[in-house]
Each structure stands twice: as C-alpha cells, then as structure tokens.
Amino acid sequence: MKKFLTRLAVFLLPIFILIYPADLLISNFLAKSNNYGEGEVKVWEDIYTGNINSDLLIYGSSRAWVHINPQIIEDSLHMSSYNLGIDGHNFGLQYLRHKELIKNNKKPAYILLSLDIFSLQNNTGLYNFQQFLPFLLWNKNIYQYTSSYKGFTFYDYNVPMLRYLYNTSALLAALKSFTNVRNTSVRNKGYMGMEYTWNLDLDNAKAQFNAYEVKFDPALTRLLDQFIQECNASNIKLILLYTPEYIEGQAFVKNRAEMILKYKQLAEKYKLQFLDYSGDELSMQKDFFYNAQHLNKKGSEIFTNKLVKDLKLLIHKGQ
Amino acid sequence: MPFNSIDFAIFLPVVFILYWFLTNKDLKLQNLLIVIASYIFYGWWDWRFLSLLLFSTLVDYSVGRRLGIENNKTRRKILLWISISLNLGLLAVFKYYNFFLDNFITAFTFFGTEISATSLNIILPVGISFYTFQTLSYGIDVYNRKLEPTKDFIAFAAFVSFFPQLVAGPIERATHLLPQFYKKRQFSYPLAVDGLRQILWGLFKKIVIADNCAEFANLIFNNSASYSGSTLVLGALFFTFQIYCDFSGYSDIAIGTSRLFGFDLMRNFNFPYFSRDFAEFWRRWHISLSTWFRDYLYIPLGGSHGGTWMKVRNTFIIFIASGFWHGANWTFIVWGLLNALYFLPLLLTKTNRTNLGVIAEGKLIPGFKDFSLMLLTFSLTVFAWIFFRANNMEHAINYISGIISPSLFTIPVFEGTREAWITLALTGIFVLIEWIGREHQYAIEKLGLTWKRPLRYAVYYAIIIVIFWFGGKEQEFIYFQF
Asked: Are residues B365 and B133 in contact, defined by beta-carbon separation less than 8 angstroms?
C-alpha cells in the first residue's frame, strides 16, 4: 500500500504543481481573445486592464450592444465612447460591469442606460457563461455576481483548470490568442453590427405564447435605484433610453405600457432624461430589424445617428 | 453518481481510504462500508429508488434463506417463483408498463374495440435491469443448489449494491462475486495499478471517443431526414463507436475500480468489433448479459441438446429477450431479431464455434479472409445498431431508406464537419490501439510495461491531456437507461 500511495503521489505531483500555473496561463491568454464568448471576453478584459477610459458609455443588454455604434458617437460628438451592452443579461450583470469599470478605468462623464423588457426581470441561467471563464477563479466579484445563477458549479469556482475540462473551444481560443493566429476582433468598442435579415423569432414566440408579460424583480428595481443614486453622487450624467423595438413586438408585450410608465416615473423621480424611441418611425420598419427586439446593422447605424442628434441637443443644454 | 463526474473523483479516494485504512481489520465493517458507499453512490441520482434496491435485496436474501432450509420440491419452486415474479414485477412496472399498455390498446383498436387507459409517468430507476438480473441469478443458483444461501445479510447487500458495477454491470453471478465478500481482501499493488490503468483507458473511451461520437450521432439521427445517404452511414458509424466505447468504457472503469478494492469482476467486452462472425461477436459483446441469458434462459429451455428446430427456437428466444431487456421499444426487439437472423446460418451450418481464438493471433495484419469476414460482421453490426438507436420503427425504416439513395455516393456534409474529422481521426487511433492490444484483457493492459517509468508515465500523462483537451460534451452513459 505504501508503495502504491508513494508512486501515485509521484505520478500526481506534477499535475498538482502545474495545475495552478496552467490555469493562470490559459486564463490570461483566453482573456486576450478578441472573439471568444461572442467577443464579451474582450470587453471584460478591456474593463479589467483599464482600456475603456471613455467619456461616454453605453450600458444595457444585447439591445444596447447591437443598437448603438460608439464610433458614430465619437465621430460626431468628439467624445470617446464604448458600448458595454451585455447580451442576454439583465441589470444585475450590467451593474457588475459598471462596478468593475469604475474600479479600473476613469469615471465617464455620461452613461446611456438602455432599458428594455428584460432589464428588471429575474434571470436564472447564466447566458453565454463562456465570457466569465478566464476570470472565474481569480475574481471575487465575478464569483459574487454569477454564483447564484445556474451555470457554474462550486468546483468550477474553486478548482483550477476544471472549468476548461472538455472545453476545446476555450483552449483553442487561448491558443489562437497566444499565437495571434485567427484572433480577429468581432467587436468595435464593444459594439457589433448584425448583418441579418428578419427571422422567425417573433412568429415562434407568438406560436408558443399568446402574449409576453414582463415580471419586475424588486431586487433589481432597488439595484437600479441604487445605481442612479451612485451616478448622481459621482456626478455622472445618466440618460435613460428605450431604443427602437419593432411595432409588432411591442404589441406582443401585455404590460408594456406599465413598464414604460415605470421607466418614465423613475426618470422623473431622479430628474433624468428618458429618450423613448418606441414610437420612432424606425420602430415601424421591419427591414431594419432582424427580430422584434433587435435592429440589424443598417438599422443600428440609422438609429445611432438619430441618437447622436438628440444627444447633441442634450449636451448643448448641459443636461 | 456517474464515473465521469467530479463527485466520483472525490468519492472514490474517500471510500478507498476508509476501506483500506479504517475498516480493513474487520471484514463485516468493510462490507458495511461498501453497502453505505454503494447506497450513497446510487442515491446520488435519486434517493427514492434506494427503496427498490433494498426491496430487491430483502426479497432475495429472505428467499435464499428459506430455500436453504426447504427440501419440499413444490415449496422450493414456489419460493423461486416468488423471487422471479417480484424481481421481474419491478421491471414490468418501472420499465415495461407503458409499453405493454400502449400495445394492448393498439391491439384492441385493431380488432375494433376502443379501450381507454391512462399511461403512467414512470421514471425508470437507473440500472434496474442490471441489479435485478444479478439478484435473480442468486435466487436461481440457490434453487439449483449451485450456491449455498448466505446468512450474512451485509455481505449479500454488498453483493447486490456493489457500486462499481451496480448501475451498468458487468452483471455478476452470485457464484463468482458473493464469495469474494466472505473473504478478507488483501491489497495488491499490481492489481491496484492495473485497476488504475484500466480506469484511465475506460475514461478515454467514454470521454474522448463515446462523448465526441455521441454529438455527431445525435445530430445525424435526430435530423436524419435532412441528411444525405453518406452522412447517414457516417451517423450509424458514429453511433457504433459511441455505444461500444460508452459501454465498454463503463465496464473498464467498473472492473478497474473493483480491483482497487481487491475484487475481481468478470470481463464484459473482448474487442467485439474484431469478430469474424456473429457467434464470435456475441461471445465478445456484453459478455455478462450473453452468458446470463445462456445460463438462465437458453440452457433451461433445452439449449442445443434438442433438434435443429429447438436450437433455432431457443436462439430466437434469447436474442429477442436480450433486445427486450434493453428497453420497452419495438426497435430493441427488431435489433435482437436481426441478430438472431445473423446468427441463424452459423447455427444451421454448425459453424458457430469456428472462430474461438483471437483474430490474426501473433500477427500485426490479418489475412484477407479474416479481414473480409471481420468487415462483413462489422457492417452488419452497424446496420443492426440503426434499429437500436432509432426512436421508433418508422424512424429506423426512414433512416435506412435515406441511406439507400443516390446521395449515398456523395461526400458527407453536416454541421461541424471539421470537428467530426477530428473525432474520426481520434477514433482511428483508438481502433489501432485496440487492434494492437486485442490479445489482452483491455487494450493498454500491457502497453509499455517493459518501458522505463518516466516514458510510461509520459504515455499516461498524454492520455490525461487528450481526455482534458478532446473530451466531448458530457453525456450520460447510454446503458444507465437500461
């Protein structure tokens, strides 16, 4: 038995010695991937390495991510800009990005917060969990915010390399990043224009449900309140947005009026601007959308130009 | 608790340490530890089904004790039938109830009588067919006086629930495994090292080959209507390797794990895809089940002692029973029937015991005849697996119709073709290793035993890295559902 245990220990020793540095190495290279996790990893890495340092930031979900092109904002307003929209996540994860950004980058002058039907809805699944992989073992805040979701196990957070087990795509992405081969960017300052045409998402949703009802999570509502107060206290100018949503999709949401009213009341309570593009002519034109919630690239460029005009006025007024 | 989980990676060393360091001085305590560990292992899936395991254990222990003191033939027979009925009754309720009900309704509807009955939403307890057959073997052996009934309930409970082979075999005979619980186990260094090596190879088969093949087999089988004939052939091939590596990988891990605890389990696979005919295939595939059917069904039915008709009848019965054992679906029955048909020519020409040795023994390359026979047997096996994998008979027939089309001669195209080529390459390497190691208990049993330790370790590290890097998406072991 002694011989068996000694030999086993000798065999396992290199694995135990190398497992931690290997995790560090893979995580570092993966974090530098320009396209892993739909490019979200790159955004997190920009946040942690202090590469954002922008005057104007865009917060929100995928609707922020694919609707607002920061390059157009930069070119028109001569203000550095970055899109921090996070696909598939509500305000909880959006707030985590904000907290991490403030810690590692200069404070922005403006934040555009894109609100939508999912902003204050509870979400149990950790969508696009791949984006957290390089930071999971090394970042307490990521652990704090993501551990309540279904996605990672206790072992993933605490045992090195385990989250990369059988994860060929992550290992390949780390390798591509290391060799800088096919490590092409999929985003520009966080934004990604979607060159898609209208798909069947809305038809499928209609076939599955009669209507959609937004359910507000009190904890997220409180968090949004807290965030607004923090922005006020830090002298960050916050502008609330409701970006274009295709008219048929608007009709599909049963309590949409209640939701918009809630956002309006929030803006009034804190004397914020609320730019609602639900009624904009863009919301009536199917050609500019690829589903009810998302503008395609062409639509997003038209929308960003409109937004820039409105922002110019607001900034000019000093609001 | 699946073998390919982190939970098991923690569970195994903990039980190993408790087994050899805390309970090793007391055999009863050691057996009790096995029972507790096995119940934790099984309860990890669904603790509610522990009651079934306990029920099966209590029934057969009690029947065994009664059989031990009962000499009256009729009463002995009644006791045996109590054991068989209760064990098969559990299977009938949990595995076959809805199947019988659906077919009963269909049959009545066919004859013009509409009857209504509600099918039940029954969850199939993991491994129920395995431990039921294992406990049945005990009752039958005691009845046939091949085995003394045990008075040691803990040893019997450990035999029924022994965690390495509880949920997917090998289905042990009481005559082989039960006596091992009566004797003090001695730790053996070569056995333990060999066990670890077999576990490693089993994990490679399951995680690298089976799980990767599963992704493509599932993709192609689940969308078979949209693929070309050549892609469907590839899908069947992926499933062929998936099921072999999944199941034999499990058996390797089970046997290896048992060795760590000083137990010897029966061999379950012996390189079946290198068989030259179907008799040889069935001597090499799921050996513990084939021999179970031989010992407890084929021989009691008269075996091959009667005339030709008797042999044919008995062969069909065991193959159909074997198909039905796998699940309550006509596809499994047809799969069994097809194998019986494959077997039939060998039986009629009395050539079913021609190929008893290892193919091309001592040679690197097989002769043309052996190779052709092996290829033919393999191709027919692949064809039969289509029925096994299909969701229902209509799916199987459509799948085969899809293959027999002009698109059979096109290049296979499907999502993830690049990854599929990697999987095929890995499978090719795997087949090569299996071929080289086909004369041993498992492919890497003797691999590099004469090499220097650093080189040998390097090979093991390489296997670990391949598992880590190329492991497929985690899939449940196929045979858990049986």
From this structure: no
CB atoms within 10 A of CB B398: 15
Q: Helix (H, G, I), strand (E, B), or coil: what is residue B136?
A: helix
Please name which of B39, B89, B31, B30 lies closest in space to residue B59, comparing C-alpha atoms. Answer: B89
Mutant choice from A166, A167, A172, A182 vs B, greatest count of B C-beta within 10 A: A166
Cα–Cα distance between A44 and A100 in angstroms, integer? 9
Q: Which residue has the tokens 């050609």?
A: A287
- Structure tokens belonging to residue B226: 């949209």
Q: Give the 3-state secondary structure percentages of chain A, helix then strand then coil, rounded to 5.
A: 55, 10, 35
pTM of this structure = 0.86
Cis amide linkage into residue B2, ω under 30° from 0: no
List the single residue in B187, B457, B468 with the smallest CB-CB distance to A165: B468
Q: Tens digit of pLDDT for each residue in B335-366?
A: 999 999 999 999 999 898 898 999 999 899 99
Q: Which of B191, B469, B470, B473 to mutate to test binding with chain A, by most A CBs within 10 Å of its CB?
A: B469
Asked if B3 and B203 count as a contact pair (C-beta separation under 8 A), the reply is yes
Kindly write down the DSSP assignment for every residue of A149-172, as one continuous string.
SBS--HHHHHSTTGGGTT-HHHHH
Q: Summarize pLDDT for A293-302 with one digit per residue, the tens.
A: 999 999 999 9
Alpha-carbon gap, residue B210 to B479, rounded angstroms? 12
Q: Which amino acid is at A246?
A: Y
| Nearest-10 Cα torsion for B107, B108, B109, B115 | -130
Is B196 within 8 Å of chain A by CB?
A: yes
Edge-to-edge order in the sheet of strand A237-242: A81-83, A56-59, A110-114, A237-242, A273-276
Q: Which residues pair with B320 in a beta bridge?
A: none
- Map residue B61 onto helix, strand or coil: helix
* Nearest-by-Cβ selection for A162 from B6, B196, B470: B6
Whether residue A31 contacts residue A45, with contact meaning beta carbons closer than 8 Å, is answered with yes
Element housing B214 (H / E)? helix B211-222
What span, in angstroms and rounded, lies between the C-alpha atoms of A238 and A79?
15
Any bridge partners for residue A191, and if so which? A188
Q: Do B207 and A166 touch (CB under 8 A)?
A: yes
Q: Give φ, ψ of A32 to 5 degrees.
A: -95, 5
The C-alpha atoms of residue B419 and residue B415 are separated, in whole angstroms, by: 9
Burial pattern B28-50, b for ≥16 Cβ within 10 A else e, equals eebbbbbbebbbebbeebeeebb
Spatial distance between the Cα atoms of B138 and B80, rounded to a whole number of angstroms: 10
Q: What is the mean pLDDT of chain B?
A: 92
Closest CA to B132 of B65, B212, B52, B250: B52
Q: How many CB atoms lie within 10 A of CB B219?
A: 18
Two tokens at A88?
């598939």
CA dist., res. A181 & res. A184, Å (int): 8
Beta strands A81-83 and A237-242 are unpaired
The partner residues of A276 in beta bridges, in order of sequence, read A242
* Residue labelled with tokens 């000694």: A6
Task: Please answer whether residues B374 and B438 qualify as being in contact, where contact means their C-beta atoms are separated by less than 8 angstroms.
Answer: no
- Residues of chain A contacting residue B461, judged by C-beta atoms under 8 Å apart: 14-15
Per-residue model confidence as pLDDT tens digits over B417-454: 888 999 999 999 999 999 999 999 999 998 777 888 88
